Amino acid sequence: MTKAEIIKKRRALDAALRLMESDIITDKVIASDEYIKADTILVYADYNGEVATDKLICRALLDGKRVYAPVCLSDGTLDFYRIFALEEMEIATYGIREPLKIEYLKYAPDEPGDNTLCITPGTVFDLSCNRMGYGKGYYDRFFAAKSIPYRLGLAYDFQIVDHIDIKATDVAMTKIITPTRIISP
């Protein structure tokens, strides 16, 4: 299946099935060592049929994690801003929900030993934990600029392929979670 076909299939998913599989993935994330160890969670607001993240965001907030959501900047970079409730996000760039850009709530990695977990979207993932997004490179540039110890990709099973041709600038996930499996490199 091509990237375009996978995106089309993801968009066409039945809403009930999408939420059921997203709930299964969320439960696996919450049970993961990465989530348990993390004090900071960077998490996307789902868009275009991606694995739903609202339940995960709410759970992380209830668990006392510092939760940040991404903002796509016009220079092709990505920043994350802290949120305290889902309602603090509004539709912005590319039709994606984003938090308000309040400078003192901007994510800045802690000292070495930081336990940040980044929940990362993607269109296609492979068995080596490589990911392909929409092709704009926002997350790859972010990961290159920041040292994020845990990078979890969330995907439906049909988004997993054997191999993706990657570029030198692509950053792999530390783990991928689907409804039926957990993939580690």
Give a count of the beta strands, DSSP E runs of length 2 or more: 12
| Classification by helices and strands | alpha/beta
Name the helix and strand elements from N-terminus to C-terminus, one letter apiece: HHHEHEEEEEEEHEEEE
User: What would you report as the Rg, rounded to the nearest angstrom?
Assistant: 15 Å
Strand content is 15-25%
Per CATH, what is the topology? Answer: Rossmann fold
Q: Would you identify the CATH architecture?
A: 3-Layer(aba) Sandwich
Strand order of the largest sheet: 3-2-1-6-9-11-12
Distance between the first and last residues' Cα = 22 Å
Q: Mean of residue pLDDT?
A: 92
Low-pLDDT runs of 5+ residues are none
Task: Give an overview in words.
- It contains five helices and twelve strands.
- It has a single domain, classed as Rossmann fold.
- It starts with a helix and ends with a strand.
- α2 runs parallel beside α4.
- The longest helix has 17 residues.
- Strands 3-2-1-6-9-11-12 form a seven-stranded mixed sheet. It has a three-stranded mixed sheet with strand order 8-7-10, with no helix packed on it. A two-stranded antiparallel ribbon has the order 4-5.
- It is of the alpha/beta class and 185 residues long.
Topology of helices and strands:
Blueprint: H1 3-11, H2 15-31, H3 33-37, E1 40-43, H4 54-62, E2 66-72, E3 78-83, E4 89-91, E5 97-99, E6 116-120, E7 124-126, E8 131-132, H5 138-145, E9 150-154, E10 160-161, E11 175-177, E12 182-183
Parallel strand pairs: 1-2, 1-6, 6-9, 7-10, 9-11
Antiparallel strand pairs: 2-3, 4-5, 7-8, 11-12
Helix pairs in contact: 2-4
